[in-house]
């Protein structure tokens, strides 16, 4: 398959994104608009300068960029800008549906009123559907490094406010020194309230963290799960119980969890029958796009178009969409795969 026909094939596949952080999804255009609204934040308001500031260098610089964007989010207008900016980018790549991770605790800690956050999300979500044809759902996640207090506050906020489109409850932030088990009561309560459990695990620590996410947090999907390949019993468990992994190859290279896409264990996961989905994590900050992830595993790991269509179908099945919508998307994927 030539580069052009591969690109058009990947574009034609209707795609679903299951692991993308709202703050980390901010494009240069969005950040430019935010920086011009908040000049005191010190983020460049000149495009060329901003592009230089925004280009990925290393993990420490990524954290600087991430927190600089976070610091400019003060009200519903800022949140709406983020949401509609993400939707425009998803539409450009023929992504039809995304489950977007939002970290309410960080926004509330920064002084944003809960009502502003919720209005921004809800208004942005409506605009995403009407103007871009992209459906969005939310995952509210706990910033793990902020401990059980963040767990409790995130749970209370999620259950009290329950905005339209909230489908999942997550856990992010650093894994080292942040055990999954301490968040068990919050996940239990969230699941009892009908939210799906989708914690990060096995991104920067070993397979034991993935086991803990499964046993302690009732994980229905695993954010990353990269290190699962170090434990054959875990791979077998994930495959048998059809627990999907939200794999983010470019992010894993950027954060140095794997040396290169060519060395990424995604092929091994697939060979063991694990349900793999491809995702972007913090796309512009890592220089990633969802189409780029599909292209990268095709060119670097030799996945053919049937396998790419299989990955797109996995994401549909692993999503929390209704059955009717899943069936329609799966049919579309089949048609694209059959036509080329
Ligand atoms: Zn993530």
Automatic annotation (TrEMBL):
SUPFAM superfamilies: Metallo-dependent hydrolases. InterPro entries: A_deaminase_dom (IPR001365), Ado/ade_deaminase (IPR006330), Metal_Hydrolase (IPR032466). Keywords: Hydrolase, Metal-binding, Zinc. The keyword Zinc applies. GO terms for molecular function: deaminase activity; hydrolase activity, acting on carbon-nitrogen (but not peptide) bonds, in cyclic amidines; metal ion binding. Residues 14-335 form the Adenosine deaminase domain. Its cofactor is Zn(2+). PANTHER family: ADENINE DEAMINASE. Belongs to the metallo-dependent hydrolases superfamily. Adenosine and AMP deaminases family. This is Adenosine deaminase.
């Amino acid at each position: 398959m030539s580069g052009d026909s591969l690109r058009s094939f990947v574009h034609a596949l209707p795609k679903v994104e299951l692991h993308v952080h709202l703050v980390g999804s901010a494009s240069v255009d969005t950040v430019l608009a935010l920086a011009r609204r908040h000049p005191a934040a010190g983020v460049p308001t000149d495009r060329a300068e901003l592009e230089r500031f925004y280009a990925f260098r290393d993990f420490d610089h990524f954290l600087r960029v991430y927190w600089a964007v976070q610091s400019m989010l003060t009200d519903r207008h800022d949140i709406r800008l983020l949401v509609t900016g993400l939707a425009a980018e998803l539409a450009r790549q023929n992504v039809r549906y995304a489950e977007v991770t939002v970290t309410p605790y960080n926004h509330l800690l920064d002084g944003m009123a809960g009502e502003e956050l919720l209005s921004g999300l809800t208004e942005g979500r409506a605009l995403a559907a009407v103007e871009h044809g992209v459906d969005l759902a939310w995952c509210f996640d706990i910033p793990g490094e902020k401990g059980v207090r963040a767990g409790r506050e995130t749970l209370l906020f999620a259950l009290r406010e329950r905005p339209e489109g909230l489908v999942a409850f997550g856990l992010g932030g650093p894994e080292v020194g942040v055990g999954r088990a301490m968040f068990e009561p919050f996940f239990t309560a969230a699941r009892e309230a009908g939210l799906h459990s989708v914690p990060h695990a096995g991104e920067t620590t070993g397979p034991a963290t993935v086991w803990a996410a499964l046993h302690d947090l009732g994980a229905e999907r695993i954010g990353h799960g990269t290190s699962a390949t170090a434990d054959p019993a875990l791979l077998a468990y994930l495959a048998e119980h059809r627990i999907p992994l939200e794999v983010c190859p470019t992010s894993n290279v950027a954060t140095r969890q794997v040396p290169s896409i060519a060395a990424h264990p995604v092929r091994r996961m697939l060979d063991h029958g694990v349900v793999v989905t491809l995702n972007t994590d913090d796309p512009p900050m890592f220089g990633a796009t969802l189409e780029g992830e599909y292209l990268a595993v095709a060119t670097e790991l030799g996945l053919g178009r049937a396998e790419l269509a299989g990955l797109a179908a996995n994401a549909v099945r692993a999503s929390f969409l209704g059955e009717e919508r899943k069936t329609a998307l799966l049919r579309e994927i089949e048609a694209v795969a059959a036509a080329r």
